[in-house]
UniProtKB/TrEMBL annotation:
<dbReference type="Pfam" id="PF12832">
    <property type="entry name" value="MFS_1_like"/>
</dbReference>
<feature type="transmembrane region" description="Helical">
    <location>
        <begin position="239"/>
        <end position="259"/>
    </location>
</feature>
<feature type="domain" description="Major facilitator superfamily associated">
    <location>
        <begin position="6"/>
        <end position="355"/>
    </location>
</feature>
<dbReference type="InterPro" id="IPR024989">
    <property type="entry name" value="MFS_assoc_dom"/>
</dbReference>
<feature type="transmembrane region" description="Helical">
    <location>
        <begin position="71"/>
        <end position="89"/>
    </location>
</feature>
<dbReference type="InterPro" id="IPR026032">
    <property type="entry name" value="HcaT-like"/>
</dbReference>
<keyword id="KW-0813">Transport</keyword>
<keyword id="KW-0812">Transmembrane</keyword>
<feature type="transmembrane region" description="Helical">
    <location>
        <begin position="359"/>
        <end position="378"/>
    </location>
</feature>
<feature type="transmembrane region" description="Helical">
    <location>
        <begin position="333"/>
        <end position="353"/>
    </location>
</feature>
<feature type="transmembrane region" description="Helical">
    <location>
        <begin position="12"/>
        <end position="28"/>
    </location>
</feature>
<feature type="transmembrane region" description="Helical">
    <location>
        <begin position="271"/>
        <end position="296"/>
    </location>
</feature>
<dbReference type="InterPro" id="IPR036259">
    <property type="entry name" value="MFS_trans_sf"/>
</dbReference>
<dbReference type="GO" id="GO:0005886">
    <property type="term" value="C:plasma membrane"/>
</dbReference>
<keyword id="KW-1003">Cell membrane</keyword>
<keyword id="KW-0472">Membrane</keyword>
<feature type="transmembrane region" description="Helical">
    <location>
        <begin position="202"/>
        <end position="219"/>
    </location>
</feature>
Length: 384
């Protein structure tokens, strides 16, 4: 079993499904199931809360009793069953209920794959960035292919694509995995010293977690309002908007492909400082120069604003934490930095967007500037 290839394959197929869910799930609920935008907003808003609860509590607890391989298999199987149960559902209450059930299992696959990655990296024979780049590549391909299929077959193809991709993931999970991922946690692994609460007692961990919450949360306006900003405010042709938004992912891919070679020996604080500075520059640039070319140039900074911050956190927990704590750390990161912070800051960004669109992006510096300040004030004391 080639560990690098196994991890790359799993990142690839997961992010193929993630492209469907992240970009098209609301469109499927409105276009194929006939829900209103307000009904979809309610469903997706509550699903973020369920997703946060699942990744913060359900996933870490399950990881203490199941091996990484069995946990991933359980999550894929449950997600596949849940998505199949969507087929006969058409009413708002039924779709709401199914989405909450789906959100209990499917989003936890993200920290599950990341947890397997950090475990394999700790063994010293896997390059994280190289394998993670396959996930970004898959995301781009997935979004592009599905946009073409929707044009031919309509929004109903979104659900069938998710079913097909989860079936492929199910088959991959049924195949042999690296031996370390099949190791069942011991009673000692479930001891109090490896609890989620004990994570906060690890020197430097609370500081790093606060920093990544601020940096990843600051992407909320970008994820939620970029499309309408380009379309309505900058009046960019719809055909070009997809190309412009994909520039960010292309630079994300380039970063992950080169990260292990260029940044493996960097301190986590240095990576986070560069990420914070790049993110701040990005939002200021969009506000000061409100035109399409400035927005395109700002897209190159996604390699810092998202990818470097993410890489820094993975690097930190891989270096500092024992294997027994990796799932807890991934669960917290997924829940707080990738879910709840984005949900809260989306509301903040929306209020600013109503005042003037560019302000929604500039407002994100309220979180990136404090992140930079925290790094500068604490990096010597905590030596991270």
């Amino acid at each position: 079993m080639n560990n690098q290839r196994w991890l790359s394959q799993n990142f690839f197929i997961f992010f193929f499904t993630w492209g469907v869910f992240l970009q098209y799930w609301p469109g499927w609920l409105t276009g194929a199931k006939g829900l209103t935008v307000s009904e979809v907003s309610i469903i997706m808003g509550f699903s973020l809360v369920v997703r946060a609860i699942s990744t913060m509590f359900v996933f870490p607890i399950a990881s203490k009793y199941l091996s990484d391989k069995k946990l991933a298999f359980f999550l894929v199987s449950s997600s596949l069953i849940a998505v199949l149960l969507y087929l006969p559902m058409n009413s708002f209450p039924a779709l709401f209920t199914m989405t909450m059930i789906f959100s209990l299992f499917y989003p936890s696959l993200l920290p599950a794959v990341e947890s397997s990655a950090t475990t394999l990296v700790q063994q010293g024979n896997v390059h994280y960035g190289k394998s993670r780049s396959y996930g970004s590549i898959a995301f781009v391909i997935s979004v592009f292919l599905l946009s073409l299929m929707i044009g031919f077959y309509g929004e109903a193809v979104i659900l069938w694509s998710m079913i097909a991709y989860l079936m492929i993931m199910f088959i991959l999970q049924a195949m042999p995995a690296p031996e370390i991922l099949s190791t069942k946690p011991s009673v000692e692994d479930r001891a109090q010293k490896f609890s989620m609460k004990s994570l906060w007692k690890v020197k430097g961990f609370p500081v790093v977690m606060i920093i990544v919450i601020l940096l990843q949360g600051s992407l909320a306006s970008y994820y939620n309002y970029s499309y309408i900003y380009l379309q309505d405010y900058l009046e960019v042709n719809t055909f070009y908007i997809g190309l412009i938004l994909n520039i960010a992912v292309l630079f994300e891919i380039l970063f992950f492909l080169t990260a292990d070679h260029l940044f493996s020996k960097w301190k986590t604080s240095s990576l986070l400082l560069l990420a914070g500075a790049g993110s701040t520059l990005r939002w200021v640039m969009i506000f000061i120069v409100p035109n399409a070319w400035a927005f395109i140039l700002s897209q190159t900074l996604h390699a810092l604003a998202f990818a470097m911050a993410h890489y820094a956190f993975i690097q930190y927990i891989t270096r500092i934490l024992p294997k027994q704590q990796l799932a807890n750390a991934q669960g917290l990161y997924s829940a707080l930095a990738m879910s709840l912070s984005a949900a809260v800051l989306t509301l903040f960004g929306g209020a600013l967007y109503d005042i003037t669109p560019g302000l929604a992006f500039l407002g994100m510096t309220v979180f990136t500037i404090p992140a930079v300040a925290i790094i500068l004030l604490t990096k010597r004391a905590y030596r991270f």
